[in-house]
DNA sequence: TAAATTTCCGAAAACGTTACCGAAAATTAC
DNA sequence: GTAATTTTCGGTAACGTTTTCGGAAATTTA
C-alpha cells in the first residue's frame, strides 16, 4: 500500500491541494459536493493525513504528554488509565513516558514530549525537584503544564494534590482512638513531598492527643515491601516492637506484616497496621488492611480538566486543587471485632 | 524565551542554513572551527532542533512505539520499564500507549504511533486479534513491528513469547507429584492465547500421569482477584473444593485463597495453590505462593533487539523467540515442610 | 441586464528541517 | 605557478500540510 499525500488526491481530481486540504478541515469554504467527492476518493485511495506535516504547519498535535515517576505500583497506572480515558473523549491522545524515579530521565522525557509538540504536559515529578526551573520556564513561555501529586502546595503552578496531611492525621488518630499505646510511623523518603506531608499529619495527631513522646517514633523507609521487612528485622533485633504501625503505603505495610508474622506476631492482635494509598491487595490481605484510599480517577480527571482549560485559554489562572479521600477501616487495625 | 530556528543561527553567523544543519549532523563535510562556532552560538541562544521538521524531512524519529493491553498488573509495567531501559541506551525514546484490553483502542494507538513516525512498534496484543490484518499490512509495507506475548506461535511475524505450555505443564506436574488427588485449573479467558496454552500444559500433565478425568477440572475465570473469589464461592456452594488449584495468575490465586480462608480452609493444609506470571506479592503472601516466574526483562530486551535488527536491516528475517522461566516452589503447594 | 454580493477555489508562502548539486576555497602535486 | 584534488560551503528543492490573498464564477439584488 503506497503512502498517498494530499497532492496525489489533488492531481487525481484535478483540483488544487488547498481544496483538498479544505475538504479535511471544516473551517474553510468549500462546496458540499467537492468536499464529498474529495473525502470519498481519499477514503478509496486509503489516504491518511500526515500528522507530522500537520503539526509542523499548525503547531498543535491533539496529543497530551504524561510523565510519571513509575508505574510499577498501581497508583500511577490508574492515573494514566484515567487520564487516557478522559482525554480520549475530548479528542486527545495520550503519550506516556516514565522516568523511573530519575530526575534526568524525567527532564529528557518532558523535553521529548514538548519538542514532539504535545499540546500540554501532565507531570508527576520524581523525588527532588531539580527540574522545577525548567518547567517554570516553559510555563512562562506559555506552555501548558499541570502537576500531579508529589509537589509542594506552595509552588506557583497548576496542580492537583491529595490532602496527605489531613488523611494521615485521620489514620493516626484512628489508631490512637483504638487505644494503641505505642505507635510507629514507617515513612517514605524524607525529600518526597507526600511522605513529608504524611509525617506532618502523624505528628499533628500525636500532638493533639498529647501522646507521650517516648511512645511514638518516625522511621524512614522507602516505598517497597522489602524496606518494610528490613525495618521490622531491625526492630525485632532491638526488641522494639510497638503495638501499631502507620505505614506510608500498602506495600511497606505488607512487607512489615509478613516479617512480623514470620516471627510469631499476630496481626492485629499483637500489632495493628494502617496503610496508605490503598491498592487492590489491601482487602485481599490477611488480615485485610486498613488504608487511606485516594480518588485516583478524579485526581487524574481534574488534572486533565485543568490542562485543557489552560490549552484553550492561555490566560486561565493558576489553580491548586486539593483532593480528599476516604479511610477504609479493616481488620488490621481494630482491637476487637465489635468495633467493626 | 523565543523559539529559535536554524535560520536564526544562520543569519546571525552569516552562513547558510545548510551549514548550520551540517553542524548538527555529523555525516556531512564541515570545517571543524565553523562547526564548533555554530554549536557554541546555538547553545548560547538556547536553540533546540525541531524534531517535527526533522521527522518530516528525514522520515525517522528515533522513537519507538509500545502498545500494551494494560499496565495495572505489574507484568506489562515491568516490560515497559525494561524496554525503555534498553532502548534508551541505543539512542531511542519510548512512547507508550495502553489499550485497556480494547481492540479498537489498540488499533487507534498503533495508528497514532505509526503516523507519528515512530521507527518501529512493539505490540502486546489485547485479547482477540481482529487487528492482525492491519499489522500484517503494515509489515508488508516494510514497517518494523515485533509482537510480545499473547500471540499464537503460528502467526508469521516476529515475536517473543513465553513457553506457557511447558511451564504450565511443570507447575501441574509438581502438584501431581506432591500427591494432590483432585486438582482444578482456574484458567483465564478462553480466547486469550496465553490462557489457552496454559490450559494445554495442564491437560498434558494430566494425560501424562493418567490422572482420572473426574479428578481434574478446568474452570474459566478472568485475570482478576475478584474472579478468583467468585469461583470459590460457587465451588463452596456446590461442595466441590479440590485439594489443589493451579491458577492462571497470582491475582486469581490471591482472590481464591482469601475466599477459602474466610470459609475456614487452610492453605496449603486443606487446599494447595500454584500461581503463574509471578508478581512481587507471591512471596509476600501468607503462605508464600508458588508461581512460575517469567523472564520479563529478557523478554523485553529480546523484543527490542529483534525490532532494532528489523529497523536497521529491512530484510532481517522473521523470528520467533520462545522464552523459558523458572518455577519457584513456596509453601502454598507443598504437603509438608520436609519437602521444602 | 448590470451591479453588487457571495461562494468557491487556485497560487503560493510558510512551518523547520535535510540532502543533493555544484561551485568556491583550500590544499596538494607537479 | 598552474593544474588537479580535496574540503568546505551556499542555493535550493524537497518533506506534507495549512492558510492568506486575491480573483473567477456563481448567485443575488436592484
UniProtKB/TrEMBL annotation, chains A, B:
GO terms for molecular function: DNA-binding transcription factor activity; transcription cis-regulatory region binding. Transmembrane segments: none annotated. Keywords: DNA-binding, Transcription, Transcription regulation. This is LacI family transcriptional regulator. Residues 4-58 form the HTH lacI-type domain. SUPFAM superfamilies: lambda repressor-like DNA-binding domains, Periplasmic binding protein-like I. The keyword DNA-binding applies.
Amino acid at each position: 500500500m503506497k503512502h498517498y499525500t494530499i497532492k496525489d488526491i489533488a492531481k487525481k481530481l484535478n483540483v488544487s491541494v488547498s481544496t483538498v486540504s479544505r475538504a479535511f478541515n471544516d473551517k474553510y469554504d468549500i462546496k458540499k459536493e467537492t468536499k464529498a467527492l474529495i473525502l470519498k476518493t481519499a477514503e478509496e485511495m486509503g489516504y491518511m493525513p500526515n500528522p507530522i506535516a500537520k503539526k509542523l504547519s499548525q503547531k498543535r498535535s491533539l496529543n497530551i504528554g504524561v510523565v510519571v515517576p513509575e508505574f510499577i505500583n498501581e497508583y500511577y497506572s490508574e492515573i494514566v488509565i484515567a487520564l487516557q480515558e478522559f482525554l480520549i473523549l475530548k479528542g486527545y491522545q495520550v503519550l506516556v513516558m516514565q522516568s523511573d524515579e530519575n530526575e534526568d530521565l524525567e527532564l529528557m522525557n518532558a523535553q521529548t514530549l514538548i519538542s514532539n509538540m504535545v499540546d500540554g504536559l501532565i507531570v508527576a515529578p520524581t523525588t527532588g525537584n531539580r527540574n522545577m526551573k525548567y518547567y517554570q520556564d516553559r510555563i512562562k513561555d506559555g506552555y501548558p503544564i499541570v502537576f500531579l501529586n508529589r509537589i509542594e502546595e506552595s509552588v506557583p503552578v497548576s496542580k492537583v494534590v491529595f490532602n496527605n496531611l489531613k488523611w494521615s492525621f485521620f489514620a493516626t488518630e484512628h489508631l490512637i482512638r483504638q487505644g494503641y499505646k505505642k505507635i510507629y510511623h514507617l515513612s517514605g523518603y524524607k525529600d518526597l513531598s507526600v511522605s513529608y506531608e504524611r509525617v506532618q499529619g502523624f505528628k499533628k495527631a500525636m500532638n493533639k492527643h498529647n501522646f507521650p513522646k517516648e511512645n511514638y517514633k518516625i522511621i524512614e523507609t522507602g516505598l517497597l515491601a522489602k524496606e518494610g521487612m528490613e525495618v521490622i528485622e531491625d526492630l525485632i533485633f532491638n526488641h522494639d516492637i510497638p503495638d501499631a504501625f502507620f505505614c506510608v503505603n500498602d506495600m511497606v505495610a505488607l512487607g512489615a506484616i509478613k516479617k512480623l508474622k514470620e516471627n510469631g506476631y499476630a496481626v492485629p492482635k499483637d500489632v495493628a497496621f494502617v496503610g496508605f494509598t490503598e491498592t487492590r491487595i489491601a482487602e485481599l490481605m490477611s488480615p485485610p488492611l486498613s488504608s487511606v484510599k485516594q480518588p485516583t480517577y478524579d485526581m487524574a480527571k481534574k488534572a486533565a480538566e485543568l490542562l485543557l482549560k489552560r490549552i484553550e485559554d492561555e490566560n486561565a489562572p493558576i489553580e491548586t486543587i486539593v483532593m480528599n479521600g476516604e479511610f477504609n477501616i479493616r481488620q488490621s487495625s481494630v482491637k476487637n471485632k465489635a468495633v467493626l
